[in-house]
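The protein record minuted underneath.
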Amino acid sequence: MTHIINIDQLQVKFQNNVILSDISFSLKSGEILGLVGPSGCGKTTLLNTLAGFIEQNHGSIVLSDSLTINKENRIPTEKRNIGMIFQDYALFPHLTVNKNVGFGIKNTPKTAKEAKINELLALLKLDGLGQRFPHQLSGGQQQRVAIARALASQPKILLLDEPFSNIDSRLRNDLMIEIRQLLKSLSISAIFVTHNKDEVFTFADKIAVMYQGKILQFGSPITVSQCPNSWQVADFLQLGSWLPFKNENTVIKTAIGTLQSNENSCIDKEFLLIKPKDIEVNLDTPITQNPKNVVVNHISHTEQGYHYIVKSIDTNSDLSFNRLSFYHSEFFTIDQPLSLTIKPHQLLMF
């Protein structure tokens, strides 16, 4: 499958401050990439650089294996065949839906232009709304109009800056699935910025976790979540809790039990990443076998059951901790002591 975009060692500077550094990745036709990372890490700057609104200082952007953009060959925005959808959708408030969508169709006879507009409205389930103005539409309808306008120029790549942040949470998941299916059917690649990792798992094929202007990890969402390559990736994606440990001849000692490790390189590592699913609550075993080792510090209600945050009972140990998160169907109370152990699993140490 052809690479629709190939980015190699991209760098952007503002007044000698490096904003993006050594950005490299590629996407195939129809692939969708989610950019995540803390505020200020460079996600939106990367989108604007790809769109041509910001000039790169180093590196190359190759589009469709033929158009190379670099410092010596600056290609203007309108010649990149890239569509952009902004967070606020940037619809023209004084134009109807038809005219907003038609704005992206250039050098086309009137009849053909009207046919294209009607086709896009039907594709995005906006039939009958062509004469309305943006303020007469719901948030989801406004987003569809913005997408229709971006698709009108038949781009190969669509860039979206937090496209679902203004959508009611009740509709967001359905809309993401709907738009993903649309992009796949049209073989349009997309790169979108989000602060919500759940959006990546629903909408994207690939994830890029950014930190201080660099991509720390790039891959499928499931691979990155199961095998984060750094504590920054694991911490930003909130994959679990940090548990201090001691390594004694591959026996890993923690405040809630011991584990066997086959990893000999953990000597320079200090914390285990413990995911909620790897926590066991000992309810039926004798206290002599599994003594109480944590106390409940916080309780919230979720669709996965009760969400608990606990802390060590023994606060004087080097292995004590203040925050460990897990879910359970049983109801416990604040300050209730519990006995926890860690289920055997593939250990993640940082």
